[in-house]
Design a protein that fits this description.
By secondary structure, the chain is an alpha/beta fold. Helix content is 41%, strand content 14%. The chain has helices at residues 2-6, 25-37, 49-54, 74-87, 102-106, 109-118, 164-169, 184-196, 210-213, 220-230, 247-255, 262-265, 276-299; strands at residues 41-45, 66-68, 94-100, 122-128, 175-179, 200-206, 236-239, 242-245. An 8-stranded mixed beta sheet has the order 2-1-3-4-6-5-7-8, sandwiched between helices. Strand 7 and strand 8 (242-245) form a beta hairpin. The protein is globular.
Length: 300
């Protein structure tokens, strides 16, 4: 029924059983991303939650070839795979680098920027769980204002989240997109599109994290939807410079019924110490970003 209605690949590339946490937003997103990418794909991943999901050598829970690399070198590793395939005259294989926000926004940004500037033919995927979750929930530059982490134990994070999409757009890429596991068809379609495009492509997955964000594992899809409903996460794509809202974000723009940010933060333990002033600042930051996206959508 799913394949007939939505044309989703019925093959499973994540095998039964993996080492991800209960309710892991990454594992939900990864399942659909792999369905879209299919067999003729090579993955490269750094130290991360995804390394844990894949499993310990010589066993794995993922049925696609994968290279483990160092934290800072994900995009450089992908560039090497692309160069190796070219030297061997191997075509028709998609190289995909997948890193968390720590390995994208922070530690891996140098290699990513270099590969994007060169136009390396690969897909870079950032699964954004807004902190260094694999090593104990430390603050990253993707952590939102007002959130508690183990490296901001007394004061919450004081800065707004880095705008990684804007940074990557500045590299003049042919395709960029944001996705959420709470909207799997939107996610699947964007990965299918990215696979068909040549050059450096960038996709960002909002990946809710029960232990890091402080909510029950059963609520992952609900939290992911609230992120979009409040505008904390905006579903969009930029293709050849043309910006457009997609899925639920597009309907929110059309109907004007976006929810207050408080509906999102009040359900997560990481925001238990957020001040009224920070909440107001966070709402203002979300409103400004949302209005910017609306102007871009209207002008495209």
């Amino acid at each position: 029924m799913i394949e007939r209605l939505f044309k989703v690949n019925t093959e499973e590339y994540m095998l039964p059983g993996n080492r991800a946490c209960q309710g892991c937003g990454l594992s939900l997103a990864y399942r659909y991303a792999l369905k879209a990418l299919r067999e003729n794909t090579i993955l490269t991943i750094p130290a991360s939650c995804l390394t844990v999901l894949h499993g310990l050598y010589p066993t794995t829970s993922v049925a696609i070839p994968c290279l483990n690399c160092t934290f800072a070198s994900t995009a450089a590793s992908a560039s090497g795979i692309v160069a190796g395939l070219s030297a061997l005259n191997r075509s028709g294989i998609t190289v995909v680098a997948v890193a968390g926000d720590g390995g994208t926004y922070d530690i891996g940004i140098q290699a990513l920027s270099g590969a994007a500037e060169r136009g390396t033919d690969f897909i870079f995927v950032c699964y954004d769980n807004e902190g260094y979750m694999n090593t104990g929930t430390q603050r990253s530059s993707a952590t939102p204002m007002g959130a508690l982490t183990t490296t901001t134990p007394l004061l919450t994070k004081q800065q707004n989240k880095k705008d990684m999409l804007k940074i990557m757009e500045a590299h003049d890429l042919p395709y960029l997109a944001t996705t959420s596991p709470s909207y799997p068809i939107d996610l699947y379609d964007k990965f299918v599109k990215a696979k068909r495009i040549k050059g450096s492509r960038y996709l960002q997955i909002s990946a809710p994290c029960p232990p890091g964000w402080g909510y029950p594992p059963k609520d992952t899809v609900k939290i992911g939807r609230l992120a979009v409903e409040t505008g904390m996460v905006v579903l969009c794509e930029i293709e050849d410079g043309k910006f457009r809202l997609t899925g639920r974000s597009r309907s929110l723009a059309e109907r004007g019924n976006r929810l207050p940010v408080s509906n999102y933060v009040e359900r997560q333990g990481r925001f238990r110490k957020i001040s009224e002033e920070q909440l107001s600042n966070l709402q203002r930051w979300v409103d400004n970003k949302w209005n910017e996206y609306l102007r871009r959508a209207e002008g495209s």
